[in-house]
Amino acid sequence: MIKIAILGLGTVGTGVARVVADNARQIERKLGEPLQVKSVLVRRFKDGPYRQLMTDDFSRIENDPEIRVVVETIGGVEAAYEYTKRALEAGKHVVTANKQLVAEKGAELLALAARKKVHYLFEASVGGGIPVLHPIRECLAANRIEEIYGILNGTTNYILTRMVRTGAFFTDALREAQAKGYAEADPTADVQGIDAGRKTCILADLAFGHEVPPEKVPMEGITKLSLRDVKIAERAGYRIKLLGRTVRMPGGGCTAYVAPHLIPEEHPMANVEDVFNAVAVRGNATGEVMFYGKGAGELPTASACVSDVMEALTTSASREEPLWSADGEGFVDPDELHTRFYFRIEGSLTDAAMAFGQVEVLSEDGETAFLTERISGTDARQQSAMLNVLACMRVMN
Fold first, then answer.
1. Among 44, 166, 172, 248, which residue is least crowded by beta carbons within 10 Å?
2. What is the tens place of the pLDDT at every residue in 9-48?
């Protein structure tokens, strides 16, 4: 009998316990012996099916030689960071869905796991139940990763879908998402791009081998997005999506950011709707591959966690070097990237042409919406300084 512990009994923690119980036969066949949840760390005891497993004393888990894997589902950094370090120091594998902890402390925790010859695994931290990190790490290992981009937050994608389908304003679509349980009462991390930004950092870390600290990554959400821009984009054959993007730069190093983009309607990413996520990875040998599915939810995320538990138990943790270094080298300002830009200005086509030269006009009716040629973010900002800009977004290449 293999025994594990779960830290936290919220949505994901409960899901992990359910997956272990409901899929016990399949898990046992693959592991060769049964998997059992022995302890669940909680702040408050409550009645329910897991009452007999609950403890509020982490040292009981830390010092229990029978517990081989700890599944951290607390979220946040402070307590999760302390418990993760203590579990790794005690020689236990740790599995997590905690994107904030991995983005901010991943390099340190991976280095500690490597020293202790145990696993620190976090497939569920990006994409929920969509397998993304393992394919990048293993299946695409022979590639030089050139770029990763994707729809990494289901809440914002649902809001944008409702704005396109029904013409809802942002505030109305957000209330609908909250009513359906897709958005938290405080949706800041979602709608301001912070959640997608943390996931983008993890993807960049893994793809390029150097830590990309979240504080270096510009994160723009969808709170300033106007329904007018959504409609202009749709009439012109584009969809607006919030993308997290990380790119290998020509001169070396990488960049990363989160921002709304115009995507051509024929692009597969343009048709990812509602709470679904999609991640595209471009390798120098494979070209572009895309992963698609539900990026959150109790059971999809729990499935990824339990899969990591099984990987930890069945593969050797002999790796001496962590997956990425903590040096933070090589990060380049995303303003150096060259793309086309969408602008909506209070002014005429003449004003747009004077600032940017040749442009593609999308709308003229008192305001002018247009696309520029490929320019850097720096040039876009400098040239637009002479205009009264109402909206600005990158266009997906």
1. 44
2. 999 999 999 999 999 999 999 999 999 999 999 999 988 8
Q: Is residue 172 a contact partner of residue 160, using CB atoms and an 8 Å limit?
A: no
What are the angstrom distances between the C-alpha of 30 and each of 25, 37, 313? 9, 17, 10
The residue annotated as part of the active site, out of 38, 92, 99, 199, is: 199
| Cβ neighbour number for residue 308 with a 10 Å cutoff | 26
SS3 175: helix
Active site residue 199: yes
| Residue with tokens 């969808």, as numbered in its chain | 222
Residue spans of beta strands (DSSP E) within 175-264? 238-248, 254-264
For residues 211 and 329, what is the distance between their CA atoms, to the nearest angstrom?
Answer: 8
Which DSSP string do the residues of 89-158 spell out, in sequence order? HTT-EEEE--HHHHHHHHHHHHHHHHHHT--EE-GGGTTTTS--HHIIIIITTTS-EEEEEEE--HHHHH
- CA distances to 103, 148, 156, 371 from 188, rounded to whole Å, are 18, 24, 11, 30
- Asked whether the beta carbons of 280 and 131 are under 8 A apart, the reply is no
The answer to whether the CB of 265 falls within 8 A of the CB of 122 is: no
Tokens read off for 3: 């025994």
Over the stretch 180-218, which tens digit does the pLDDT of each residue have? Answer: 888 888 999 999 999 999 999 999 999 999 999 999 999
Q: Contact, 278 vs 292, CB < 8 A?
A: yes
Distances (CA, A) of 204 to 45, 117, 242, 327: 39, 24, 17, 14
Long-range contacts of 139-145 (CB under 8 A, 24+ apart): 140/281, 140/283, 140/286, 140/289, 142/285, 143/283, 143/284, 143/285, 143/286, 144/248, 144/283, 144/284, 144/285, 145/207, 145/208, 145/248, 145/281, 145/282, 145/283
Q: Round to whole Å and give the CA distance between 345 and 338.
A: 21
Q: How far apart are CA 173 and CA 280, in angstroms?
A: 26
pTM assigned to the model: 0.94
Domains in the chain, CATH or no CATH each: 2-129+299-314 (3.40.50.720), 133-294 (3.30.360.10), 338-395 (3.30.70)
Placement of tokens 């899929």 in the chain: 23
| 243 phi/psi in degrees, rounded to 5 | -115, 140
